[in-house]
Amino acid sequence: MRKAVSSITAIVLLIIATVAIASLLYIWSSGYLSTQTSQIGKPPTTIVIDEGNVAGSTLTLYIRNMGSTSVTVKDFYLISTSGKVIKLEPAIASIKPSEGIWGGDVWVVKPNTLELVRTVKGLIVNDKFSDPNPAVWDDAYVDYNNAWSHIYYDPDGLKLLSISDDDWAVRGLITMSQIINLQNLPVVIEVDLQKTNYNVPYGDAAGSPFAACLYLSPNKNPNPYYATPWFAAKLYPRAYPSRTEAQLVTRSARVELKTLYTWYSEPNTQPRGIFLLIFNETNKVYYYFWRDSRTGKPYASGSWASTGLSQVFSSGQLYVYLTIDNTVTESSRKVHVRYIQVYRGTELTVKGLQPGWVVQLIKDSEVVAEKVATGNSVTFDLLDIIIDKGMPIDAIKVITYEKEGGGWTIEPGEVKAVKLDISNVPPGLYTVKAVAEDGSIAVYHVKIKW
């Protein structure tokens, strides 16, 4: 009987020991697996925020990649002391100046505020002549051999009227100073000239003996024809047969010219020519010419050189004239100048960038050019835009992140400055949380005040 009890006791003890060992194994196994699962689910910390600062409406974070592979950081959050979470968007620098953006401009992005500042001004003159502009133009000096003349300005542009006293008479404008220097290239001029059929019998302005002219000369003269040497773009009357020619002309010891288009005499004609003139090589002009309207491709384009043009280049600084040259004595003739633009070249530069930033040029609400920075600056060749759409550009937009990825890609060991927009963030103390695509998280504390 005692032996039987001992056997039962031994069995019970064995069962208890087995259950205890099983429990310990379960607890140990569960804890280990839980620990391993926790470690697998938690990504390695590959990014840290070295520094942060606030300037204006921009928060700049300097993020370092501590890992061995590239990482893309896309999401940023501000967490207030009360627990409110604000998602931040990338900062974008943009400028839309009232006078426009011109060839020859240099713009710089300020590093902290992302303000775009023009450091080199390309524009020399942009005038649509809706009002007098005495700071630029003298409208009294150019007045030669007129029996009667008049100049007036309206929303449609400049109007020059003349009745000749006899032979050639001239009336018009001259710049107050020598605003162009062909020793300092490049220079671009665009002008819109028209011979109107105001007071012209049968409306035949093409056959009427008066001219619409732009002159460039180093000299002043009430009649620019005598201000040699000069270069001119003209809508000029010719005879046998009666017609008007769009011309490039120079005069020094002799007159040299190139004809771009001809309007022959017929009723109800008003020859109009738009000349785009680019001086970017010594002693040569590149031209683009539109007839009747500034739409579509130019009717004529090319380059031209002459002995007189070489002398104009050698003269350096030049006055600009806009005139009606007229031989009609019985009634007034009228020239219409819609606008003139003078600016310093066909390139535009934006500086103060970081590699990967995207710079866009915008005109008429359309992105007309875009470049991704590979260094601290980009330069645009504007010629195709000028020919297709004209100047000026309306706006510059700088996107401060890699556009394709929608974030910032940081290489191993690299520190990248990330620009974030905080324009709508209330002042206060915040924790910044940066989240990478691989799940890495970095935090930083900032104070925002306005």
Keywords summarizing the entry:
single chain, Jelly Rolls, Immunoglobulin-like, 34 strands, disordered N terminus, mainly beta
Structural write-up:
There is one protein chain. It is elongated and about 145 Å long. A hairpin with a 4-residue loop joins β18 (230-238) and β19. By secondary structure, it is mainly beta. The strands form six sheets. Strands 10, 11, 14, 15, 17, 18, 19, 20 and 24 form a nine-stranded antiparallel sheet that branches. Strands 9, 12, 13, 16, 21, 22, 23 and 25 form an eight-stranded antiparallel sheet that branches. Strands 3, 4, 31, 33 and 34 form a five-stranded antiparallel sheet that branches. It folds into three domains: 47-91 and 403-448, Sandwich (Immunoglobulin-like); 92-122 and 347-399, no CATH class; 124-343, Jelly Rolls (Sandwich), CATH 2.60.120. It has helices spanning 2-41, 307-315, 383-389; strands at 47-55, 58-65, 71-80, 85-87, 89-90, 92-95, 106-109, 116-120, 123-127, 137-138, 143-144, 146-154, 157-164, 169-175, 180-181, 187-195, 210-217, 230-238, 243-251, 255-264, 272-281, 284-291, 300-304, 317-326, 333-343, 347-351, 358-363, 366-372, 377-381, 395-399, 408-410, 415-421, 428-436, 441-448. It has three helices and 34 strands.
Q: How are the secondary structure elements laid out?
A:
Blueprint: H1 2-41, E1 47-55, E2 58-65, E3 71-80, E4 85-87, E5 89-90, E6 92-95, E7 106-109, E8 116-120, E9 123-127, E10 137-138, E11 143-144, E12 146-154, E13 157-164, E14 169-175, E15 180-181, E16 187-195, E17 210-217, E18 230-238, E19 243-251, E20 255-264, E21 272-281, E22 284-291, E23 300-304, H2 307-315, E24 317-326, E25 333-343, E26 347-351, E27 358-363, E28 366-372, E29 377-381, H3 383-389, E30 395-399, E31 408-410, E32 415-421, E33 428-436, E34 441-448
Parallel strand pairs: 7-26
Antiparallel strand pairs: 1-2, 2-32, 3-4, 3-31, 3-33, 5-32, 6-30, 7-8, 9-25, 10-14, 11-14, 12-13, 13-25, 14-24, 15-24, 16-21, 16-25, 17-18, 17-24, 18-19, 19-20, 21-22, 22-23, 26-29, 27-28, 27-30, 33-34
